Amino acid sequence: MVKKALDIYEAYNRFYSGKRVREDSWDYVVVPTNSLAMKEKYNINFSNNVVPEDDDLCDRLFLAGIEMLVTTGFYNTDLGRVLHISEDEIYEGIKHAPKEVKIGSGKDEVICRPRRGNSKVRPIIEGGPTGAPVSEDIFVPMIQSYAQEANVDTLVSGVLNTVKKHSVATNTPWEIRATLTEIRSVREACAIAGRPGLGI
Description:
two-stranded antiparallel sheet, alpha/beta, 2 domains
């Protein structure tokens, strides 16, 4: 039984005292090993159907996800440590999760609500290069091409390779400038497409 919800302070304390794990070990050993174990334990097999429609498989996927989170935890790249939570804490978090989220504004606002398996409710459609590297000379037109599609409800931006022809290196001022440029460019593309309130 959970006595109280996991707040930011408790999460920080658990991260700070959590087990040390190297990032490459986390990425290439811990996550793949635990994923394979869950796949085998819960008999997860998508075959040729990437989006499962079988209720039993959906249930097994959910249980596998819960156990994967309990077993694996969350990794903090800055601290190089892992935070573990209990199954009760996961269910408590689900119970208190928002039932809907508003994304965007004005005529471009959409409401994202939970959908059950085989739902008749149309899903929210996200368009965009989804974190893929994009050249700065085509960034705005590329985002605009997604924004002007009527069936696209929200955008997932790409990442600039360069800014003013300077390489975007991690932990440098150019990384900050790239982020600001991406935000401005996405907003510019949405305005050009006539959808200034499109959610990002």
